[in-house]
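Lay summary

Proteins are chains of building blocks that fold into shapes. Our project writes down both the chain and a compact code for its shape. Here are two examples, one after the other.
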Amino acid sequence: EEQLHRVYLRVLSENGQAIRSYEKAGFRREGLLRDDVCIEGDYRDIVWMAAVNSGNDQENEE
């Protein structure tokens, strides 16, 4: 069975509720993309987040 090693997402930096939810789900902040998107004429920052499967929860196939 194939497992995902890394999943990433982008979220508006002002969306604190979503960021907290993603952190509770195992995502960690990896970066900030300043003025990355333009919404209705205003540039907004984006938080880059990722969850990485360390392999600790996988069974050994020996």
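And here is the second example, written the same way.
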Amino acid sequence: MENEPLSKPSTAPAMHRFAILLACVTFLLLFVGALVMSTGSGLSVPTWPLAWGKLIPPLVGGVRYEYAHRVIAGLVVVLTLTMAVWAVMAERRRIVRNTAIAAFALVIVQALLGGLTVLLGIPLPIAMAHTSTAIIFFCTAVALAIFTGRWFEEAPHLEEPPHRLALTTLGVITTLVVYCQIVIGSVVRFVNDAIAIRDFPIFAGPAVPGVMSEAVLSDYVHLGGAIAVTFFVLWTSLRVFRSHLDQPRLVRLAEAMVLLLALQILLGLTTVWSDGAVIPASAHVAVGAAVLATSVAMTLCAFRLYGRPRRAPQGASREPLRGTFERKVTA
């Protein structure tokens, strides 16, 4: 049929809004998870999935943070299941269906890792797997919000201005660097009971301290990661500002990424100078996730504009995209 929509017109905008809701609730979950870590509340409820056999335990002390984390995590599971079922039943685009199914698989793995983290007393390998999977799931939720949007479906395919390193490649590198930095930061938070270098940026006098303990070394690695993130975020953003000003969506994402990076650096310094105060430390984690989400969104949009032209799904008729080939019609 001519010009058949890829999903039902009445459900496509609703699905996009639902995907945005899923991403936002997942972001909230990351922030509350950071609060659990910052307050040392991870084992305040040492049983799972129930709290001492109760659905709602006495909400005192660290139990409040841990219980809030579990409630929001349960909500994320329900939202993800709803999204996956909805996409499979109502969405024709394979990329949306597959991403929704992958998101549901990830959230189940994430929930099981969270349970093991509690039951086994927060062992570092499982705790890091829990954190790493959480970040990947958040990126998947952001991707769903991008894929279900009208812009992603209707944007034309264009020829990218010539550069030694394509914007899509640069975006992938930036995203990976930011992801690795978040994981490194999580390791630092698990390994160090306190900030090892409290007088940054003078490093207890000399630039390189005489005694390089495990805590100091981990802080140095995290600092090196922060420098790498700053370098690639600025490189990617400057590329957009110089060569892609005709793409407002890319420009807005680049502006947001730079502003979030500046806020992230400020929160990192505040965390150090406040000796790991709960709110700055937790906000530092959340804004780092926001930087990653922005990088993921920019990379996906760049692939949509400058990657290989996408073929229309089977059974759907589409007009040729500007800047690509025209379909040949045979009698």
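What can we say about the second shape? The chain has two domains: 9-154, 162-311.
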